[in-house]
Fold these 3 entries.
Entry 1:
Amino acid sequence: MIRAVPLVLYMVLAIFPFWVRAQDTPIILFNVRTVVETILAIFFLGSLLLFGWGLLRFKFSKDPVVKTKAKDLMERGAIGAVAMAATWGLAIIIVNILGIPSEIPPP
């Protein structure tokens, strides 16, 4: 119960500008879209780096145990890249359905 209080407080504070009309909805939605796209890009980059690290370890290693671990890294990186690409596509579909602006409208 105690852990839920800060979460509820953060949710209320996140929605508060809508209640008092402190910001326009398109500006807030644009900011949320920018944050989500940045997070997805960072995860996508991380999965590609994981794949690349596994590829380098596989190529330059002579130990079969290390090669097996490198194959696992490459598999995880490839699965992560596919998952991030699918998530990014789903996010674009949701953004288009909701009509979230891609640019901040002029004041």
Note: The mean pLDDT is 82.
Entry 2:
Amino acid sequence: MRICFPVQEAKGLESNLDMNIMTAKAFLIVDTQTNEIKVIPRGGLNPVAPLEKEMFEFVVVMSIGKMAVQKFNEKRKRVYKCHGMTVAKNVDMMKRHQLQEIRPEQCT
């Protein structure tokens, strides 16, 4: 499974998630089968634009708006609420199916 995380600073699995996907300094895409980690720098005017070219199935975030969830869902990418600050903790919880999916109607 390939999971995307918005992070404050790219430090591998020890990276801390950013509070909001739109303010993230970078994105990490973690492949849980190969343990490969890819760093994607944020875009300029549209911080998430570089993600459009990337292959991943899930996004794990602290905070996200309704329209962003809808856009990810339209591209068949499911959005989950993080639990804890580090990428490592959330990868582990995602593997155990312990994170809650965020639906557009749950957002403000």
Note: The chain has a mean pLDDT of 94.
Entry 3:
Amino acid sequence: MLVLAVLYIGYLSFKKDDKLEKSSQEATIDLGAQAILTSQQVNQTLKEFDNLKRSIVNSIAVFSLPDFQELKDFSIEVFPEPVGRENPFSQTSWKAQIDATIK
């Protein structure tokens, strides 16, 4: 009986060591996978920064062109409209004034 108990305890200690080896191997694999994932993320971020840098350089080049500098502003002033008219399809007051002066 004592021999069986010693064999059983030896078996359990062997099994525990085996589990420890596997868990340390799994931890090493997990660390390696995390390192690979992190390096991929860093590479992706560096590529995005490079693309951003090229975009900024291209924008500066376009806005510095003489053709762009010679563009004229043809914007029209938009008059404020009252908000919340009862009938949105009715004629506005400024449009009615223009029509009255034309007639």
Note: The CA atoms of residues 12 and 18 lie 10 Å apart.
